[in-house]
Amino acid sequence: MATLEREIRFESDRDPEFAAQIRRMPGCENLNRCIQCATCSGICPLSTYMDMTPRRVIQLARDGFKADVLNCNTIWLCASCYQCQVECPKEIGITDVMYALKCKAIEAGIKPKQAAPQTLYREFYNLGTKNGRISEGALMVNTVIKTQPARFWSLKMLGLRLLRTGRFGWKIERMPQQSVLKAAIQATPPINGKESS
Amino acid sequence: MKYAYYPGCSLKSSGRAYEESFLAVCKILGLEMEELDNWNCCGATSFMSIEQGPAYTCSVRNLALAEKKNMDLVAPCGGCYGVLLKADHYYADYPAVRNSVDKGLAAEGLQYRRQIQIRHPMELLTHDPGLKAIRSLVKRPLKGLRVASYYGCRFLRPVAPFDDMRHPQTMDSLMKTVGARIADYASRGRCCGGALAGSIPKMAQELTYRLIKDAQKAEADVIVTGCPLCQFNLDAFQDEIIASHPDVKPIPVFFFTQLLGLALGAEPEELGIQRLIVPGIKILQEKGILGDKKADEKKVPVAAGAQNG
Amino acid sequence: MVSDNSHNPAEEVRIGFFICHCGVNIASKIDVAEVAKFAETLPGVVVSRDYKYMCSDAGQDLIVEDIKNFRLNRIVVAACSPFLHEKTFRTATQRGGINPFLCHMVNIREHGSWVAEDRVTATEKAKAMAQGGVGRVRRHVALEKRREPVLQSVLVVGGGIAGIQAALTLANAGKHVYLVEREPTIGGHMAQFDKTFPTLDCAACILTPKMSEVGSHPNITLWAYSEVIHSEGYVGNYKVKVRRKARYINEDECTGCMECVEHCSFKTGVVDDEFNVGLVKRKPVYMSFPQAVPKIVVIDPLTCAKLSGGKCEESCIPACDRQALDFTQTERVEEIEVGAIIVATGFKTFDAKRKPYYGYGDFPNVYTSLEIERMVTSSGPTEGEVVCRDGRVPKSVGIVHCVGSRDHQTNRWCSRVCCMASLKLAYLLKEHTGAEIYNFYIDMRTPGKGYEEFYERLLEEGNHFIRGRVAEVTDFAMRPEEENHLIIQVEDTLSGYVRRVPVDMVVLAVGIEPQADASVVRRLFNISCSDEGFFLERHPKLAPVSTATEGVYLAGCCQGPRDIPDTVAQAGAAAAEALALLDPGFVEMEPMTAYVENELCSGCKTCQTMCPYGAISNDAERKIAVINPMLCKGCGTCVASCPSGAIHQNLFDDQELFDEIQEVLAHA
Ligand SMILES: Cc1cc2nc3c(=O)[nH]c(=O)nc-3n(C[C@H](O)[C@H](O)[C@H](O)COP(=O)(O)OP(=O)(O)OC[C@H]3O[C@@H](n4cnc5c(N)ncnc54)[C@H](O)[C@@H]3O)c2cc1C
Ligand code: SF4
Ligand code: SF4
Ligand code: SF4
Ligand code: SF4
């Protein structure tokens, strides 16, 4: 017999320290000001695809419902267009909150159900920090293979056209001197909203 | 005057035509671009989504390099421009950012004092040579071409240093200056889908569809952009978009520097016009902007002269 | 205003007829020129004109000039509703040199052009109405407005911030004010608050200076612990009886030193302290709070051992070195005469027990907002210490909005101040205890200067706002961490989840409702209540502090829920209205009142029961009805009700009406 599951949130589901960390991330300091007007959800070009609207993410994030906001697809669908952020009547850095939540999800090792956006970001980050520059060819191929293998062949035509027009190459782009960037990254303290940082 | 040219990753591959056309225009207008030595990826939206400390260090490092050369930094890529600009602001506004970045840069003996400006070609061309100077150099006015300027997000949000966030005009003015007609449409600043085009293409294409549809409703012949990602999203996936939305027609998507260069007398090949996925030559010939010599060679029948009346 | 040209009935009737186009309002549907031409043919009409805007200066001048040039002695204006311009044309008539009541208006706009479809029939109707008006006006006689002196004093009922403000404004303008307050001290609800939103300035700091000013103002007679028991009269001349309850204290001697309270044979409080909303007990002899005005103690006869009929060692008496205690005192009734009355009796808060699911009275740690107001006051019963009834200092507090408000089962209205008061209490509770504060609201209503900003401040300070009406406060724990707490279960409509929030303390933001005795007070001053029971203003927009009874004004929450700034503004407005009434020294009364033809009156008293304004009394000696023209509003009810046909009404005489009807029918 299936167990009864309640859609309920207890106070023990809240993690106030988590909310505090988000508020300490750059651009997120006004989080608490939200009046839940939903301008953000209304204007977001992607909210119709999100399992939780940006407004709801803000409400849950500020109250520290960590599990809810780190597992929603909203943060990964956010295209960082900043439309919500500039229209928010309370000047809340909603896009920055989305960024902060993505970082926290990564920090917590969360693999979203819709994995592609996170995979793309990771590929990009790895290439970028390794070589100092992005090799678009490698990025595209890697991401497509990892996330939409079925689409790989249907993109063949586009690939050919890009090759023909010289917009696509197999060459790995690198900074002339990568080591300096690596050193800089290594010497950078994390920005994660934790009080010690 | 010399500028520190920051191409970013895209202008070296998928956005090559942007680099070609931008540098060609600069040459005509006498703007000297010196590519920044050993620049690195700006971080785009990805770094910021993974680890914010390194994200800010990577961005600001480029600014520090330009500052060291005492030159303003020119970033043609919309993504780079937006990310660098934001990093510059947040570096100033958030002690946490400054603290991390300063320590990171110190590893390379760099520091950043916010003494330079971050510039985008759209605004640079409008102000430094100025519209008057550009107008005086027009060789091939874009007469009869109806252009929809697509701005996307990064020149406008989260800060809009040179334009009206909600009704941007800079690109339109440039296009008007070289004789084009303007297709005014509401979604000029809406999101193109950005990186989602690479991860959840269907979703991104729904956004792109709206832009194309809106531009065509305003009777645009072509779209111009100032961002390689926008250009790519609008240009490369039109096949797929039209397959699911037959109400839109193919429409060429240029870098605004390509049309500027053309008007200023540069040849299509110098400007990378042949690199568009949805070919752009034909409409230019139809409008009589490009001579039909080439068209004859390729046996494309045109009646440009007649149409242009 | 007296016309020197009183009409002589024998004189030849010379009528001027004026018809207005009202732009196109009338002229588009009625052929005004034709009506004018028609009117010229009516008997007695000497001159007949049409004009684009009769109410304009030029239009009025037509009347003035024609009266002089044609020696007119009757005027008919066919135009809009008399409600709008009767005064205008009567004034013009008077300027022409004849009695203003010799002018009559015919409404061919509201009753004609605006409701007609066909131009021909509309024009015919206008002609019929014109003929009726001309027929009627012949019978008009010159009338005089009555002037009555206005007494230069004002009664203010209720000594909350509304009454205080109104009293001070009037007193400072040189009028004498009687301020009657039911409780032993003035101050009302505001005196019970610690801070006031949104500025959080200390309530006592801004209120007590005003209270003492009232106490010492030479133009104010302050009667606290008193009630109005009777009122009669009319605008400018009200006679009022005030019952001054016995304090059992000689008011002239008591200095408020509180020695008697100290020495009362009850060593501790014995009955709920009203001022502290029952948070503590008080003794039979008490003072509401240290800054009370008047600063005099009072003995409550119901609990005083001696006064309630028992035995007492009467230790209070020797404690007073001024011998102020007086167990023989009885209540007194004062009779005063005033020109105007301002009713400022305030509100009461919703009784939280009427919502049993909120557990007020069952769970000791459920409080009303008013109780918390007292608790957070540094001079209050706990000296500002926030401790629950069970002794714990709350680590978490849930504030439930809209208790009793916006609810068909209780009060349908929004109480307007409780959202802001809840925010204030959230702020203060957090400041006092550092507790986690949860606000449960339906809508946040923060309209007012600086109010939304205050809300934003609370948001920023990390208070929780959960949008959902609380249905139940329970102690049933679903989880270990909920044990020993009150649990508020609510749907947070914004996060989309049902949430359970365990708290140590629940605060119920009780709504504002009319005083329990509002209907008694209403009858006392002959004013009305709106559906909810708040006193009814004459017009919700244009006469918000006046009532249907001339000379009686409203201020503060007795008229509807409002905050202190609005209350003070309204009190100022009521004072200004009263001043405008008092200052000229007299009132002028419209003459269209009813009068009794004594010979015909049989003294049956039918009319007396019918008059809605209580204007008719019975002359017992002559056995006839007497109408007080100052109270008569000219409604005509008595005229119609009199079985002997003994009552007539100026400007609405039977014969005038019959003539008008006859002429209208004659045209038809
Ligand atoms: C919990 C709570 C907190 C609040 N906090 C604030 C705040 O911070 N800021 C703000 O602006 N507003 C606040 N308000 C609203 C504020 O209380 C009212 O606006 C204000 O008290 C109205 O003043 P009033 O004089 O009309 O009524 P009251 O204060 O009720 O005064 C009426 C007076 O009339 C007396 N009276 C009643 N009947 C009679 C009678 N028949 N004869 C003689 N006397 C009579 C009463 O004893 C009383 O003294 C709050 C309200 C509540 C319930
Ligand atoms: S637009 Fe701003 S205030 Fe409105 S719901 Fe979104 S975050 Fe909140
Ligand atoms: S920034 Fe993200 S959440 Fe905000 S509108 Fe754009 S896509 Fe939506
Ligand atoms: S009655 Fe006497 S003892 Fe009591 S307060 Fe007044 S002066 Fe003091
Ligand atoms: S003011 Fe707020 S708490 Fe009070 S009744 Fe209105 S909505 Fe409810």
How would you describe what is shown here?
- The complex is a heterotrimer of chains A (197), B (309) and C (668).
- By secondary structure, chain A is an all-alpha fold.
- Chain A folds into 2 domains: 11-107, Fumarate Reductase Iron-sulfur Protein, Chain B, domain 2; 115-188, no CATH class.
- Chain A is built from 12 helices and 1 strand.
- In chain A, helix 8 (116-131) runs antiparallel to helix 9 (136-147).
- With 309 residues, chain B is α/β, with parallel strands linked by helices.
- Chain B has helices at 16-29, 44-50, 52-68, 78-93, 95-106, 121-136, 170-177, 196-199, 201-217, 228-236, 238-244, 256-263, 281-286, 293-298, 304-308; strands at 2-5, 32-35, 73-74, 118-119, 146-150, 181-182, 222-225, 253-255.
- In chain B, the strands form 2 sheets. A 4-stranded parallel sheet of chain B has the order 2-1-3-4, with helices on both faces. In chain B, strands 6-5-7-8 form a 4-stranded parallel sheet, sandwiched between helices.
- In chain B, helix 3 (52-68) packs across helix 5 and helix 6 (121-136) packs parallel to helix 7 (170-177).
- Chain B starts with a strand and ends with a helix.
- In chain C, the strands form 12 sheets. A 5-stranded parallel sheet of chain C has the order 10-7-6-18-29.
- Chain C is globular, with a radius of gyration of 32 Å.
- Chain C has 668 residues and is an alpha/beta fold.
- Mean pLDDT of chain C is 95; it is low at 1-7.
- Chain C has 5 domains: 1-144, Rossmann fold; 146-244 and 331-346 and 515-582, FAD/NAD(P)-binding domain (3-Layer(bba) Sandwich); 246-330, Alpha-Beta Plaits (2-Layer Sandwich); 350-513, 3-Layer(bba) Sandwich (FAD/NAD(P)-binding domain), CATH 3.50.50; 593-649, Alpha-Beta Plaits (2-Layer Sandwich).
- In chain C, 47% of the residues are buried.
- Chain C has 17 helices and 34 strands.
- The interface between A and B is large, with 72 and 69 residues.
- The structure holds flavin-adenine dinucleotide and iron/sulfur cluster (4 copies).
